[in-house]
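Much of our argument rests on the idea that a fold can be written as discrete symbols. In the encoding step, the backbone of a single protein was reduced to a row of integers, each denoting a local shape. We regard such an encoding as a compact summary of how the chain folds. The record that follows shows the chain in one-letter code together with its fold in token form:
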Amino acid sequence: MATALDRTTESSAKGAGGGKEAESGKSGKSVEDAAAAARDTRAAAAVGGPVVGLGLALLATVVWSGSFVTSRALADSVPPVQHAFWRWLIAIAAVAPFAVRATWRARAVLRRHLGYLLAASFLGVTLYNTLVNQAGVTTTAGNMGMIMAASPVLMAGYERLGGARLGARRTTGMLIACAGVLLLVSKGSLALDLAAGDLWVIGGAFAFGSYSALLRRRPPELGGLPFLFATFVLGALMLLPAYAVSLTVQGGFAPTAGTVTPLLYVGVVSSAVAFFAWNKAIALIGAARAGVVYYLQPVCVALLSFALLGEDMSRPRAACMGLILGGVVLGSTAGRGRGAAAVAGRGAPA
């Protein structure tokens, strides 16, 4: 009887052990399935990420092209510094309902990276648009477009200094697009008659290029929405002394439909929407590739002028647009397949 009992106990132990082995096997298989799913997700993100990033960069570029048209409408009625200040106040009001709670939760992270936030706010909010607004008073739109085309070159230069390899295709595409921009805005002459405003927009180009390069170094724990809202607030605060001086020296402006409507556009669409899209694009594809898309801005401005203002669309202008588009396609798609394969082939990121 003891023998039978021993056999029964042994059989039960084997059954339990077999059950544990089966559960262990199932658990191991589940882990393998999860790892495979994670690899598939990363591979899909590697393929989809550049597409989304390019789309966001294009969205920001198109919106900013429209802001050039609206900003020109304010050149004679709203002083440049006041234009910039109210633009960012409106942007803060537009973003606040979505960002205040997230920004408050991230306050410790924001304090830890205050130096970085101040630099980004000064370059992208306080300085860039103020300089461009000031430039529009004394220089032509063509010169502004040509000089602002230096921004993507500066973005690529910063990435190269940071150790990134741009590659032959991207560099070639950037140069082709840059040549198309120069031919388009100069009407084939490549002759510049620099005015005082040209110097202001040169400063704006450096500010925007530096801001875009700085975005690539954004700390990973600094979320996109808290970062956007914090830079808007800090940038507006740094602009406040210049705004006070402008009010004292130049006086205010009349809040009419002709001034408020363009300010709403540049505050809500060109600031809140476009800056969020551009910041996300930089995070996904880098400043150099997003900068290539930025070359489309003169094309968008020309199309808007043709559609809204009835300006002539000549064959040379259309040819320049084709040159720019070809350069953008060549430069922005370089290396996408290799990037997807690399992410799909390696394990989880550290």
Observations:
- The chain has 13 helices and no strands.
- The mean pLDDT is 76.
